[in-house]
Each structure stands twice: as C-alpha cells, then as structure tokens.
Amino acid sequence: xxxxxxxxxxxxxxxxxxxxxxxxxxxxxxxxxxxxxxxxxxxxxxxxxxxxxxxxxxxxxxxxxxxxxxxxxxxxxxxxxxxxxxxxxxxxxxxxxxxxxxxxxxxxxxxxxxxxxxxxxxxxxxxxxxxxxxxxxxxxxxxxxxxxxxxxxxxxxxxxxxxxxxxxxxxxxxxxxxxxxxxxxxxxxxxxxxxxxxxxxxxxxxxxxxxxxxxxxxxxxxxxxxxxxxxxxxxxxxxxxxxxxxxxxxxxxxxxxxxxxxxxxxxxxxxxxxxxxxxxxxxxxxxxxxxxxxxxxxxxxxxxxxxxxxxxxxxxxxxxxxxxxxxxxxxxxxxxxxxxxxxxxxxxxxxxxxxxxxxxxxxxxxxxxxxxxxxxxxxxxxxxxxxxxxxxxxxxxxxxxxxxxxxxxxxxxxxxxxxxxxxxxxxxxxxxxxxxxxxxxxxxxxxxxxxxxxxxxxxxxxxxxxxxxxxxxxxxxxxxxxxxxxxxxxxxxxxxxxxxxxxxxxxxxxxxxxxxxxxxxxxxxxxxxxxxxxxxxxxxxxxxxxxxxxxxx
Length: 553
Ligand code: GLC
Hints:
- This protein is α/β, with parallel strands linked by helices.
- It folds into 3 domains: 12-112 and 188-224 and 231-473, Glycosidases (TIM Barrel); 117-174, Oligo-1,6-glucosidase, domain 2, CATH 3.90.400; 495-551, Sandwich (Immunoglobulin-like).
- The chain has 17 helices and 18 strands.
- It is globular and about 80 Å long.
- Mean pLDDT is 93; it is low at 1-7.
- It binds alpha-D-glucopyranose.
C-alpha cells in the first residue's frame, strides 16, 4: 500500500476521479440514424467501466435544434428525441451506477436555444419573458448599430437585431455564441430560480454532478460597456466586461447550497476560461464549485519547462483553496492532442488549441504526435487530483483535418467567415470495429452514414484492432489507469527530481514519473520500470518523447 493511502483519510470520489467525456452524438449509434444516442452509450457502458475510469461526463443530451451541437438547449428537463427518452436516461444513470460509474451531466446556463419556450415568448412580445434575456436598443441615429462592441466567441458581432411588433427594425439581443443561443439575464431572479430547479430535477434522478458550460460568462459588467478594440489580445486574457465578473460567484454559492442539500452531496466542475489561476481559484472557494478544468495544461506545448510551470502553478493555486487539480488534454472544443503534438511546438503557452487551420502550413507527423500522446497520458495520470479523458483519445485518434467544407457542421466555420474550420475535426464518430466506415459506430443495416465522415485510415484505430494488440495505446490507458488507482491517487503535489532541462521527473508516493520531451535520450535511475510509454524504454534508457513510471527495485 502506498504511503499516501495509509496516511490520508478517505477522499471523496470527485477529488481523485478519472472522468471519461462522452460526446454523445459521436460515441455510438444504437438505432442506425448516423447519430450517437443513449442506446449506443448504454451498450458500451461495460466497455467504459472496463477501462478503469470512475465517472462519465455526458455532453448536453437535452432537446435541441442543434445549432451548436446541443449547447443550444430548448428544454432542460428532457432528452433530445434523436438521442432517446427521459426513461432511457434514467436507466442509463442506474446502469452506470451499478457498474460503479458516477454520472456528470452538462448544464448550459449562459444561454438557451432560440427555440426555448422563454425566448419564443420573448419574441412574441411577452415582457416578462423578454426580461429573462438581454435585449437593448441599438446605437446610431436609428438604432442601426449594435449596443456595444462585443464579439461572439464564434466570430462576428455578439448582437442580433430583431423586428418589433410593427415589423420594423427593433431592439438587439445579446448572444456571446451563435445567434441561436440568446444569453440569459442572470440579474433576473426568475433565471436563478429556474436553474436551481433544473439542478434539483436531475439531482432527484440521481445525477452525481454537473459540468458548468461557460461558467465564467453568466454575469456581465453593469451597463454592458464596450470592451475597446484589442484585436491582438488572446482569448479571455484581458479583463472583458462579458467574462469572469465578480458577481458570478453569488450564483454558484446558491448552486452549492442545492448540491449540498443532497446525500451524498452532488458536485460541480467549471468550464471557466479565465486569465490566470488566481482568478480560477475564486470559483473553487469552499462555498462555491468543487473543481474547474485546468486549461493551461491543455494549452501547453510539448516542452518540459512550460509543462512544469503549468503543473506547479495549477497545483499551488488548487492547494490554496483545498481543491483538487483537474487535468485535461483534449475535449470536444479543441484540436485533438495527437495532432497538436504532431507539429512544431510553440516556445510558450499558446492559443494553439484554437488555431485549427494549420494543415496547409505545416504537415502533421502523426507518428510523432502519437508517441507524445502516449507519454502525455502517463504524465497526466501521474499528477494529483482528477483527470478528464475525451472519448477516442484511448484509441489515439488524431484530429480529422480534411472534412470537406460542405459537410462541416460547426457554426464556428460560417460565423468566422470560413476562416476557422471549427471543431468538427475532434467530433468525428468513434471507430469501434471492422475495416471500413462506419467502423461499428452504427449497427448493421444502418439507414444513414455517420453524421461526419470517418477517415478510412481509422481501420487500424478501432477498439477491436487495439484491444488485440498488447502494445496499443488502448492497453496503455488500461494499464496506466489501473496503476494510478493503486498507487497514484490523491492530492499530494509532485516532488520534482533533478533532471535535464527537457525532462519532467517527479515522485508521487512510491512512484517516479519521467517524461522526456527533448530530442536526445537520457539515462534513467536504476529502478524497476513499472510502466513505459513504448518499447524504446529499455536498458535504463528513456528515449525522446517517451515516459516511464519507476519504482524501487
Ligand atoms: C462551451 C462548450 C462549447 C459550446 C460553448 C457554447 O465552450 O464547450 O462546445 O460551443 O460553450 O455553449
């Protein structure tokens, strides 16, 4: 037993869990319509449990016109019909629990769908409904200019003008994302009451927690002032009147009370893209949220020095508020890390996860990316706190960068004026088996092809193919997850070990983790190799772009 396990009191599941992100549209299609669904997910729950994860986070599964792949919610208390029914959702929750998996849903409180009953009523002139959104008169002589200079996260202005009751151009409404995602006005108590009630609706159905979508966006600066023109400022790096306002914390204090009123208490993880870890820690105060994604880790290049700074910064600031760190390498919004690591690496933390249109500038060396991804998961799973895995990373999937333009579905593609290809490339339906599309994503006799085309090269990346190869990345994930549960769980920060500049080396409990991000191999200390990222790790050597976990002989 590790020292840590003998010395520490039992930890709550959310302080140590590895959580697997299910992007339901692309996970598995049970009914053959080319879209992933609850039946497909339920059939694969035993597979997920067999990986050695502790929880699932399921992307929004509510009824939605899918203007932004379900992040435009039309009804927060039901399930999207093309995914299944509420009864099936309840079954899924209890089946997951029976397999020892917690279930975390995704709540989208910053905006509703424009098809939500509230917004439809607002459009019909219902003033009470209108007051739940952010409608404002325009600027200019005839109100023809947007009320302020804010831009949508997907590109273009964050305001859309509507016709008034007489059919004339009227007020504008705010949407920090697509026009089909009107922002709610969180200064309105009705909005607060509604969302606390939605939380209870799902907690009463045994949901273990929520990932909070754009948790940093709900409160806007009073008077909605202009941001000012800062064209080169990286995303969310400058204080912006739409993001990370101090008033937002009061909302989460209310949510925490709701979560704590359940036995066992329910939990939250924040998606908050804020300027730095001090700002992030504000969301993690004891009466607010439990955890928040640590996105600097995902923005870090494959460079030991930068990664070490990010790890120290994240663990220090999490320790200050007593929260676990929450590591992520990939999710449904960013370029898959196999591909991020397959090109030249920027010198410092970058916005590179957002810069998608790289393939015409520099070819991707996917073999290199995969080697690094294998080492990266060993790094991630050796770190304290919790980790999130994105579906398909256990198959070593790369970003699909050549989806034909006419098949792209992400609003980012058109809202950016066709300059940003958007996020479809990390959302392609998973390959499970067989040697040609749909690779077992849809059942035999499916009536439709998968909603995004799968590359033919995925024949070697199916679960079936990888399961049968003892050295596959899938089997590396299984081994690393098993060993992590036995030896590496907990919140103790890494103790760094002297090592060459391009190498990350630290001890946690009885295990040393060594990761070589440099170009030349190094000599490892004389210890037993518990796990290695590839078979180049032998004879005490750690080659470039490889990782090893070591224990005393
Ligand atoms: C979050 C989601 C993203 C979505 C956006 C708007 O960033 O992760 O997929 O488009 O919020 O809801």
